[in-house]
Specification:
The protein is globular, with a radius of gyration of 17 Å. The chain is of the alpha/beta class. It has one domain: Formyl transferase, N-terminal domain (Rossmann fold). It has 7 helices and 11 strands. The strands form 3 sheets. It has a 7-stranded mixed beta sheet with strand order 3-2-1-5-7-8-9. Strand 1, helix 2 and strand 2 form a beta-alpha-beta unit. Bound molecules: 5-O-phosphono-beta-D-ribofuranosylamine. The site of 5-O-phosphono-beta-D-ribofuranosylamine has 15 residues, from helix 2, strand 7 and helix 7.
Length: 216
């Protein structure tokens, strides 16, 4: 392959920055989709607000630049000086799309403005049911027969942005919090790469709250 061809390939790949606070299994699923050729993207960096998060270890193992950036003094949001530090790093990597993968903080106006319509999130329920924390437990407590996962654009609310993709999961009589969460995660690992593929291929159009998919 010529140098020019290599440059062209890398130029056409969507530049993702993944933000997470936990295990990083969704980041791993995205990486796998990139390496098996089903997603034309590149994870340019991983940023976490948790120093010993699994997502940082996974990034390190895959030779992806990792950054721990404390988001204190806030506990549940990314704001103030910390938000500025995150934005600096995101800009350093020429980030095109921010992928929230288990990032346990609310994104505030500064980042939303800087990356308008360019932040996506995955949530472990069929939104608008069960927004917020421990959605799988909320589904069990409520007694729904079906739950699932949702990939959506991020807006100023909590899990309220326009929905890109949803996948459903049955709730079984003998489900525990752990077994249900594990089955939801299996679907997340399909849904997130698929949503990213649609974005990378420029197939989405947002019309008010509706995300229309052009599959032609
Ligand atoms: C996922 O269940 C996701 O829906 C939620 O946080 C969890 C992250 O899991 N937002 P992982 O760190 O990707 O394994």
């Amino acid at each position: 392959m010529s140098a020019n061809a290599t440059d062209k390939n890398s130029a056409s790949r969507l530049r993702l920055a993944v933000l997470g606070s936990g295990n990083g299994s969704n980041m791993q699923a995205i990486l796998e989709a990139i390496s098996n050729g089903s997603l034309a993207a590149e994870i340019t960096c991983v940023i976490s607000d948790v120093a010993d998060a699994g997502i940082l270890a996974r990034a390190k193992a895959a030779s992806i630049p990792q950054h721990y950036i404390s988001a204190e003094p806030f506990r549940t949001k990314l704001d103030g000086e910390a938000e500025k530090q995150y934005l600096n790093v995101l800009n350093d990597y020429d980030t095109e799309l921010i992928v929230l993968a288990g990032f346990m903080r609310i994104i505030k106006a500064g980042m939303l403005r800087a990356f308008q319509h360019r932040i996506i999130n995955i949530h472990p329920s069929l939104l608008p049911a069960f927004p917020g924390l421990h959605a799988w437990r909320q589904a069990l407590d409520y007694g729904t027969k079906i739950t699932g996962c949702t990939v959506h654009f991020v807006d100023e609310g909590t899990d309220t942005g326009p929905i890109i993709i949803q996948r459903h999961v049955p709730v079984l009589d003998d489900d525990t919090i752990e077994s249900l969460h594990a089955r939801i995660q299996q679907q997340e690992h399909i849904a997130y790469p698929e949503a990213l593929r649609l974005i990378s291929e420029n197939k989405l159009r947002v019309k008010n709250r509706r995300v229309l998919i052009n599959n032609s």
